[in-house]
Amino acid sequence: MRDLPLPPAPIALLAELTHRCPLSCPYCSNPLEMVAREGELDTATWARVFAEAADLGVLQLHLSGGEPVARRDLPELVEAARQAGLYVNLITSGIGLTEARLDALEAAGLDHVQLSLQGVRSGIADRIGGYKSGFDRKLEVAKSITARGLPLTLNAVMHRQNLDDLAETISFAVELGARRIEIACVQFYGWALTNRAALLPTREQVEMAKRTVAQAVQTYRGRLAIDFVPPDYYADFPKACMGGWGSTGLNVTPDGTVLPCHAAATIPHLEFQRVTEAPLAEIWQHGPAFQAFRGHDWMQEPCRSCARRDIDHGGCRCQAMALTGDASATDPVCRYSPQRPAVDALLAEIPEAEALPEFTYRR
Ligand code: SF4
Ligand code: FES
Q1: 252 in helix, strand or coil?
Q2: Are 146 and 117 in contact (CB under 8 A)?
Q3: pTM, to two decimals
Q4: Are the CB atoms for 125 and 138 separated by under 8 Å?
Q5: Rounded-to-integer distance, Cα 314 and Cα 312, Å
Q6: pLDDT tens digits, one per residue of 319-351
Q7: Is 80 exceeded by the pLDDT of residue 3?
Q8: Contact, 55 vs 88, CB < 8 A?
Q9: How many Cα neighbours within 13 Å face the side chain of 125?
């Protein structure tokens, strides 16, 4: 194994408590092979993982899924994480988050809720989420969260079919009393790749979105924090995905597999370890999957000698895998990548609105 310096402590742990979910979004980021309920870690093992994470230096815990509310032991898990000293954020669709469950989570010490938003009207939101009445339920949940004084972030996933509603989406967040909105354009790996033709926005939409966000930042300054992740297919350079592989955060899947990012399992040659096989610190510091793309030795040209290699770290490994079949290739959205013409070809083939394909839902 290469002799790399020990990485600094990760800031955040994303705990995918379950892959079970009532929604079936066409851009779902869960892996194509999901973990069944029987394969999920039990309460005690998750509690140990949270304690190990805190010892390692992790500050923030994101409880995610699937739909984490599907775990009946969610309040116990929140309590265990708080006892370990972690800041606990719940990432949820809101489905199943009854008043009684919110009471229990609040009592357990939940710090923050991040509520996903598929659209700003029931028609489109329920169509995208594949769940009837999901939007109405989400509204009730959002109101209950803010009425309790729990900080709320809306997580708006944007794409071809809802990006025109961006201004309305931002004002909706303000009306609901959210403190922050994350506007994340769909990234294309996993299930989203299957629906790319229906989800990839047009250049006009993206330019309009940038102007809308710039205006909204001025309008809502001091009332709403706005984070915007534009679709990188339109960028000249890739994003520094995960802040660099194995540098700031780690994911634990429902069966305890530890991943450097949520889509890392799409890279076939990587060797992953489970929390039941080794301590979290050992996996973070020395695990072969975490070492795979740290430093510069793994890079190919043009990244290896590029002045931006410590800025974007060569882009997203999972996107390089999805678009080129080689996870160590330069992210093909980069304008220096020899594969960039393939991305430009995709942008040139965007269908007209009338010709958009139907979503393929994961059921
Ligand atoms: Fe980033 Fe590599 Fe492109 Fe340079 S060549 S800008 S390091 S992706
Ligand atoms: Fe895996 Fe970007 S999603 S490195």
Answers
A1: strand
A2: no
A3: 0.94
A4: yes
A5: 5
A6: 999 999 999 999 999 999 999 999 999 999 999
A7: no
A8: no
A9: 19
Give the residue, by CA position, lying nearest to ligand 2 atom 1.
318
pLDDT value of residue 1: 52
62-79: burial string, b at 16+ Cβ within 10 Å, e else = bbbbbbbbbbeebbbbbb
Find the 311 Cα to ligand 1 centroid distance in Å. Answer: 8
pLDDT score recorded for residue 304: 96
Mutation test of ligand 1: which of 296, 316, 330 has the most ligand atoms closer than 8 Å to its C-beta?
330
Which of 241, 304, 305, 308 gets mutated to test ligand 1 (max ligand atoms within 8 A of its CB)? 308
Q: What is the rounded distance in angstroms from the CA atom of residue 107 to the CA atom of residue 78?
A: 9
Q: Quickly list DSSP for 35-78.
A: PPGGGS--HHHHHHHHHHHHHHT--EEEEESS-GGG-TTHHHHH
Residue 291 pLDDT more than 90?
yes
Alpha carbon 217 to chain centroid distance?
22
Cβ atoms within 10 Å, residue 190 = 20
Q: Is the CB of 332 under 6 A from ligand 1?
A: no
Ligand in closest contact with the CA of 241: 2
Q: Can you tell me the distance from the alpha carbon of 148 to that of 146, in angstroms, rounded to the nearest whole number?
A: 5
Q: Find the angle CA(363)-CA(15)-CA(327) to the nearest 5 degrees.
A: 75
Which stretches of the chain are DSSP H helices?
43-56, 74-83, 99-108, 122-129, 134-147, 166-176, 191-194, 196-199, 203-219, 280-286, 288-291, 317-324, 340-348
Q: Are 112 and 62 spatial neighbours (Cβ–Cβ below 8 Å)?
A: no
Residue 133's pLDDT band (cuts 50, 70, 90): confident
* Percent of the chain at pLDDT exceeding 70: 99
Contact indicator for 62, 89 with CB cutoff of 8 Å: yes
3-state helix, strand, coil split of the chain in percent (to 5) is: 40, 15, 45
Q: Are strands 87-92 and 273-274 parallel, antiparallel or unpaired?
A: unpaired
